[in-house]
Amino acid sequence: MSFARWRDHFERNRLRVLPDVRAAAVGLSPAWPAQLARSLAVFQLGESKGGRLASEIDAIPGLDVDYRAAIKLFIDEEQRHGQLLALCVESLGGHLVRTTWTESLFVVARRLAGVRFKLVVLLAAETIGLAFYRGLCTRLPEGSLRACLEEICADEVHHLKFHGDAFAGDRAFRMTWYPVVIAAAAVVLVDHRRTHRLLGIPLTESIRRFRDHIATVGASLATVPKAHMRAA
What we know:
Blueprint (H helix, E strand, L loop, with lengths): L3 H10 L18 H16 L3 H6 L8 H27 L9 H10 L4 H23 L6 H24 L3 H21 L1 H6 L4 H21 L9
Helix pairs in contact: 1-4, 2-4, 4-7, 6-7, 6-8, 6-10, 8-10
């Protein structure tokens, strides 16, 4: 497996400018901005992490050079998502947060083992994040907020394919990922239940969306030929 194409993909994405989301609240129901800001602030905190992983990846011998570069560029793109969400939160009249109980859980999970397990946690977070953003987009009116979330969703789709190329066929990775991603889904469903309720998203719909995303990623990890990543 050559990761040169992923390196090129992320390099091209770096050239994009940040979208203008100053009108994020326009067209929303008056009760929505505050709750949306609260939920997006929680995701913003998670999207802004990853700096330590970028340095830790250099300590792993034997990695494909393009994969090593692509991981760092992927982390940069995740932090760009953090910037985008911060702008959305500000435009919605909300405030960023420094810590949450959900982020604390992910921090503990990321520190339980080495780089490989951190990538498991990242893939779980991306799977559930994509499902959550897509759920919001089904209810948001056309406008800068929905367009911003749709841009993040498009990036996340590529992120999941990138990780799939690296770990597809790796049964141990997949079996570790399943309990983590299921736990992540449960945490998000509990922590953001008010947002779902306010936007008229039934719990059954959210569960179905999360389940379908988990199944899709799980299938890609199981069926695509295993990539070569010797030391992660």
